[in-house]
Write a structure and sequence with these properties.
The complex is a heterodimer of chains A (about 350) and B (about 170). By secondary structure, chain A is an alpha+beta fold. Chain A has helices at about 10-15, 45-65, 80-90, 95, 135-150, 185, 190-200, 230-260, 265-280, 285-300, 310-320, 320-330, 335-350, and strands at about 25-35, 70-75, 105-110, 115, 125-130, 155, 160, 175-180, 205, 220-225. Chain B is mainly alpha-helical. Chain B has 3 domains: about 1-40; about 45-110, no CATH class; about 130-165. Helix content of chain B is about 50%, strand content about 10%. The chains are: A alpha+beta (about 350), B mainly alpha (about 170). The structure holds zinc ion (2 copies). One zinc ion binds near residues 78, 81, 93, 94 and 97 of chain B.
Chain lengths: ~350, ~170
């Protein structure tokens, strides 16, 4: 597969907009960090050893019966804009994109599975799902992990568990995260309170699509910080039974209150966003995130007709810079990107 | 209710902890809880944590300086990692570093993982049986504490049986 081929559609798993709590939870993700025994960690590996690690895990992963088409992408060899596309689709991290030496990613299950080789650890696998679906994410990644383990001996310590390059990932090496859309909590000024409570529960909170720490478009990613001294099942269960339902309930409550008390404020926000997206000639990526977030809220609350969640979700992904440039087949400057972005948004959001 | 520690201020922090299947309650005022390191749970960036932990406490003059120099000079024989480099990059060079720099890393590990430093999750199948059993027992005991905490005594009884089974020497 050439990464460029991906730019016209969103990831198979992402667009659907289904799944539990899908009006609040955009996606679920579980990542595992693993290292092969007998090798130094990535920061202390020479190019030859990196190649060996890459070949080892590549062979192991390709030997497993992964579902769907399976792709290996040599991250060191593809063009910078293709790397950027992989980052925008959350298939690799920026660290992996900007890394040095032999490194790659294996993608399967319609992009719901990705395994980075030679990122911060030798192997960083992730499974994604729409909505709140962490149990199936864990089941799938655990099974794949078992199959790799049958072929590659992992670095494991009886006290510390799975050994990782950074002590913050030690033990289970598990990072569970959910991406949440919380516009009503933001509008009603309750977001800080909720996020502070999440931080008190040892969760990391960050805005996902934004450049810095500020979440644009009311999207927030919550993930566990503690990976040692807890079981994987426990971390997953905390999200599924405790954390997410509680925050989702707050958000839905806030939406209901807005709808009951300030319906015009709400409609104005939603319809303005839709109006701009349907008519503007230049839209920056930040503005698109911000406006799409409001449109998404409108769709979820039934304030916009003839538009489905899948379309809105897809536009979040397709309007990012590398997606636009690969679609155009050439490098675009900022104004050209904003123009093409506006064109796509107009055509996808217009009323037929 | 008065604080158990100072017996002066009103207790505002009430902890119910379960250890080895036993309930233990602690009632503290803000100040005493703070002193015991219970009230502060702010997230400290790893880098900051590292430099704090790696900085030498100003205690006994010369000896400390010598110690600091030694510490700085210590290098992992397998990969060449030093504490200084780790403090800068937040990444270790090889699994052996956890042994070489144990004194410095252990407090850091405990701080990052809510006081825990022992794995109780998944175990690779290739692990020797005795090592596997240790980890499984740790997990079961944790689950037992949870069950007792939630007053789910049926589950607690089941877990006690499972623990007993695990501890029995298998022939
Ligand atoms: Zn007190
Ligand atoms: Zn080392």
């Amino acid at each position: 597969m050439k990464p460029a081929d991906l730019c016209k559609a969103s990831s198979a798993w992402f667009g659907q907009g289904r799944g539990l709590f899908s009006d609040v939870v955009i996606s679920s993700r579980i990542r595992l960090a693993r290292n092969a025994a007998g090798f130094a960690f990535v920061p202390c590996l020479g190019a030859d050893e990196k190649q060996t690690v890459l070949d080892t895990f590549k062979t192991a992963l390709l030997g497993i019966e992964l579902e769907g088409e399976i792709f290996f992408i040599d991250v060191a060899q593809v063009s910078p804009v293709e790397r950027e596309l992989l980052v925008e689709r959350h298939l690799i991290t920026r660290r992996q994109a900007n890394g040095q030496g032999p490194r790659g990613v294996i993608v399967a299950y319609g992009e719901a599975f990705a395994a980075m080789i030679n990122e911060e650890d030798h192997l960083r696998m992730q499974v994604l799902a729409p909505g709140l679906d962490l149990h199936s994410c864990w089941e799938r990644i655990n099974r794949i992990d078992d199959k790799i383990e049958a072929q590659v001996r992992y670095a494991f310590d009886r006290r510390y568990g799975y050994m990782t390059a950074c002590p913050t990932n030690l033990g289970t090496g598990i990072r569970v995260s959910v991406m949440l859309h919380l516009p009503a909590l933001k509008m009603t000024g309750q977001i800080e309170k909720v996020l502070a409570a999440a931080r008190d529960c040892d969760l990391a909170v960050r805005g996902l699509f934004g450049e810095g720490t500020e979440a644009i478009g009311d999207l927030f990613q919550l993930s566990n910080q503690v990976t040692l001294g807890v079981s994987e099942a426990r971390v997953v269960d905390d999200f599924v039974t405790r954390i997410v339902p509680k925050i989702a309930a707050y958000e839905l409550e806030a939406r209901k209150a807005l709808l009951a008390e300030r319906p015009q404020t709400l409609d104005d926000k939603i319809q303005r966003a839709l109006g701009v997206l349907r008519n503007a000639c230049l839209v920056s990526s930040q503005e698109a995130l911000f406006l799409l977030s409001n449109v998404r809220l409108g769709v979820n609350l039934g304030r916009i007709e003839k538009l489905d969640l899948a379309t809105v979700n897809e536009l979040f992904m397709l309007t990012q810079p590398a997606h636009l440039q690969l679609r155009a087949g050439r490098m675009l400057d900022a104004e050209q990107r904003d123009s093409l972005r506006a064109q796509i948004l107009r055509s996808r959001l217009c009323v037929n | 209710m008065l604080c158990q520690a100072c017996k002066e201020h009103t207790a505002t922090i009430h902890l119910t902890e379960i250890r080895n299947g036993q309930r233990a309650e602690t009632h503290l005022c803000q100040e005493c809880a703070h002193q015991q390191g219970l009230a502060v749970k702010a997230q400290i960036p790893l880098n900051e944590l590292l430099s704090t932990l790696l900085s030498v406490q100003p205690e006994a003059g010369q000896d400390q300086e010598k110690l600091a120099a030694q510490m700085e000079a210590r290098t992992c024989p397998d990969c060449g990692m030093t504490l200084k480099r780790f403090a800068k990059e937040s990444q270790l060079g090889c699994p052996h570093d956890y042994t070489v720099f144990k004194d410095q890393l252990l407090p850091l590990i405990e701080r990052s993982h809510n006081g825990k430093s022992r794995h109780c999750g998944k175990v690779p199948t290739h692990l020797p049986k005795a090592e596997k059993q240790d980890i499984v027992l740790r997990r079961l005991k944790q689950q037992l504490d949870e069950a007792v905490g939630q007053e789910d005594y049926e589950r607690a009884a089941r877990l006690r049986d499972e623990i007993k089974q695990q501890q029995e020497p298998t022939s």
